[in-house]
Fold each of these.
Amino acid sequence: MLKKYKDEQEFYSLVGIKLQTFQKMVEILKKAEAIKKAVGGKPNKLSIENRLLMTLEYWKEYSSYRVIAKRYNISHTSCIRNIFWIENTLIKSGIFNLSGKKDLIKNKGINNNLLAIDATETPIERIKKTKITFFG
């Protein structure tokens, strides 16, 4: 799945982050995986780069785990496990965190602008199953 991109602008428009940021994330994830693999375990089917791309795809497009798993030819549970590991590892690194509420109040916002983040979850409307009867 990891492809060659024409330039950094194409990479940014398709992935959603700059190439330098991506490379920094890969570096952090490789260090974390080396520590994880020192204990032992089964090797992952996907490379770190592909797992990170999969996670970024999930964040950007908000596709379901099943759809992403199908694209990367892995199981649904493996997709969830990989995305959770990537998210948790990047959060624990401390480099990719958003400023907290106290920092925003202390600095009176970012560049004196109002910052609003919509983090609400909305339920998915599903078609109700109905019984089909044929008259004849």
Amino acid sequence: MVNPISHNNKLKKGLYLIPTPIGNLADITLRAIELLKNSDFILCEDTRVSKKLLDKLMIKTKLISYHKFNEVKNLNKIIDLLKDNKIVSLISDAGTPSISDPGAILINKCLQYNINVIPLPGPSAVTTAVSISGFSEKYLFYGFFPEKEKKIKEELDKLSNLNFCFVFFVSPKKINKIIPHLKNYFDDRKILICREISKYYEEFIRSNLNELELFKNEPKGELTLVISEKIIDKKKSLFLSESDKRDIKIMINKLSLREITDFISQKSNIPKKEIYNYCLRLKNEK
């Protein structure tokens, strides 16, 4: 066991970022347990959720509510505690703090006052999902999608040009709204949908994106999506024929770029992105 106590048998003063289990409660580290026991205060999103974990671990440290709706309001109070050399730990409901969770504002404030910020390794839905995906180890983590549909399209349009894996978080209520957008922008890629990671009913759904169907019933538990890097089909031609180009020129002022792309891709064995980019260049020349 690696003891978190420093050389002079005292914990280093500052803010500790402590990952908590994303499902199975046994996934918490020994070091995390030791630090939570020796903290003066624990900042948590939902005291009811955190209390269940801490009760199981027999940890009686005082909890302070810290979530996205009160993080600015409580900021000065927490900084005062840290300035007073209190040991404060930050946890989220599940996983690593400040990853798609509150924390960044507090961390930056600590850095501004030269307060120690000490991260612990531990459970993360991101790395767990990527590790089982079988896709490229080069990935970009995005997190949750924007609320507005227009913004979702803008973001996916930019991302679809990058040849990396992508990791997204999606709530069960929004997954069927997101799937059509993913199929539209990443139709030539594969997808892994992870549900209830490390819990008894954990599920891993694998599919080609162009074959992915909507959920018939709303799934339980937040979902972690991993989109593969671009799948290169060696049988596909990467170049438009002169006939295709003539057809596009005829349609360019009559149909949308997306409609032209869909039409040409149905009769030609060419990636949609190549067709779309040609249409875009042609449109800009006019």
Amino acid sequence: MTPETEAALAEIVKSAEGPLRIVGGGTRDIGAPVVGEALSTAGLSGVTLYEPGALTLVAQAGTPVAEIEAVLAAEGQRLAFEPMDHRALLGTDGTPTIGGVVAANVSGPRRIQVGACRDSLLGVRFVDGMGRVLKNGGRVMKNVTGYDLVKLMAGSWGTLGVLSEVSLKVQAVPEAEATLLGRGLENSAAVKALSSVLGSPYDVSGAAVSGGAALVRLEGLGDSVSYRVKRLLDVACAGWEVVEGEASAALWRGVRDVTPFAGRAGTVWRVSVKPSDGPALVAALGGPEAILDWGGGLVWLLVEEDAAERVRAEVARLGGHATLVRAPDAIRAAIPAFQPEAAPLAAISRGLREKFDPRGILNPGLMG
């Protein structure tokens, strides 16, 4: 089912007699496989409002991300939160949609500077599990009516409602970009260097460890980037290489999309911990291949298929959160993809789902 209007979407949900598997472009097949009739938002497509001067864009949920990026690029603007494209990592096809990005709260390397997807989200329209059309938020940041509910929808994976429209703040594309590249560093030394850089006044927009190298990104006006590169080479990144322009952008697309793990055997985990704990987690698991983003606080792990228990145990010991992003269907069906919640938080989550989807028909079982 692929409705082309919000009213048609609401009618489908209202009249549903069984579970619905909510999808956007079908590129982020994560979590326990949902048994239900497919309901796609791909028919709800198009940018409905764009005000470059106000740095505001409104689009229907099924609008391809590439279309939005093209509209923004024509005005020298972009999505600040740098959403990941999961297709290479997960081996999926289809077209990433802006509703899918918001539903999964997809946020890339620039999160350390501008926040997550939910921090750029101004408002939403969605259909709840009873077929009611709800809206919250606005089209400018100072309109905070219902703002907490707006954030709640980001990362709900279609379990609280089916997004029909989203409002986002955007940002200008910077004049220049450069990456400082420190090769041959152990994870602990690399993260220590990144922590020093992130504690400096030089406004870093990316800090990661990938392929045995530490990467630090700087963006902005050309003279400003040149000055900050020079200062960091003098202070915290002595001897590091400097990569500029498209070559720099390509490095960060690889980090954003976890390209080194694409097409490789093994399961992929996405782990959030304190940045200082990132190297310790990798070491405790025996040194699997890892990408450390967000200064060490976001760890992508490529591990054996039987490593789930060890990953969850070590992450729990460190007080972090682990999400199983890629695994064979049998493992996905047996192991919860999302971090098990403590009893009080699980009760709140159940209460929210019962409020917005009392029949339990929206992506049932996906998030527990």
Amino acid sequence: MNINLGQLSRTELEVLAKDIKARMVELEKENKERAYTEMLAIAAKYEVSFQAVVDKFGKPTKKSTSKGVPRYANPNDPSQTWTGRGRRPTWLTEAVQSGIPIEVFEVKP
């Protein structure tokens, strides 16, 4: 199939681009379905469940990392806290710039 893009208007090109994107999504879905069906057949051939194979060799799930224990809290809004790592929050920066010592905001254990 040969399409002379130079002869198409902007509107025709946009329609063509939209059709191409839709077809690519459709093809990806078809390929995933085909691959899944083949993987199920291979697992059945070796008399194991597909889920057992995925569990053993699949990518491990990413464990959530702790954000740390809050070291500073906003007395006006206790839900605003800071661990002391990363960028200093605006509420704390503004308070320190106005002359309030940072120690005032420390969370006591």
